[in-house]
Amino acid sequence: MGNTTKSNVKNKPRDLTIVKVGAAFVMMVLSMLAVQRVLEIYAVMNTFDAVYRASQICWKLCAVLCAASAVAYVLLCGKKFRGIFPYVFVLSALVGACALDLRYFWTEHATALYMAHAAVYCLYIIYCLYRSEFFCFSVAAIVSGFCFYFYSKGLGLNARTAVMAAVVVLVLAVVALLANRAAKDKGRICLFGKKHAVFPVRFNPTVLYVACTVLACCLIACLLLGSALFAYYCMFAAIAIELIGAVYYTFQLK
What we know:
Oligomer: single chain
Strand order of the largest sheet: 1-2
Structural class: mainly alpha
Number of helices: 8
Shape: globular
Radius of gyration: 20 Å
Helix content: over 70%
Strand content: under 5%
Number of strands: 2
């Protein structure tokens, strides 16, 4: 009887993870179908105005939800339903960013919208299934891949190029710094006077260092060469890095 109870307790987190991953996959498919339908409606002149006006309301509402969920998460410490607010924040940010893009760029970034939805849900699945360092690894690779994708559409001395480069540099620096600090204290970092375990005790920071270095070199090369074709190749380099990381961290699950 006692062994059966222990087995049930151990299986509960695993069952919950399976449910989360399945729900994330279903939502990813539904959200991409929704994006496809909205783009089809938006591309027709007769229904263009409805989507144009709705996108303005949508991104403002999502901005309010993002702010409200962030404040609620900070203020409602110790509450059981506190874990809902990060989901609200991320989904509101995703939908709001898509609505804002549709508002000002029409269907110009249609492919990027599909990629954004796939990336967010895939990152969540990685977060559920893999160790935390692969999640950081994937964030660095995906953000860099998005940057290279936009650079492949046209690269010049403008604000968009500078902002995207700054975002990539910031993400890579945060991931590398997080790995460096955690490696010095058995996977823990000190934040606001408290130590938080962000990585396993025996994690390998070298993999994160190498990934960040290669992606940073690709970014620098894109900026120096100013070639959209080279940025296109760098996008596939980021995809290859992500696949290599997936193989490596899958073996680390043993």
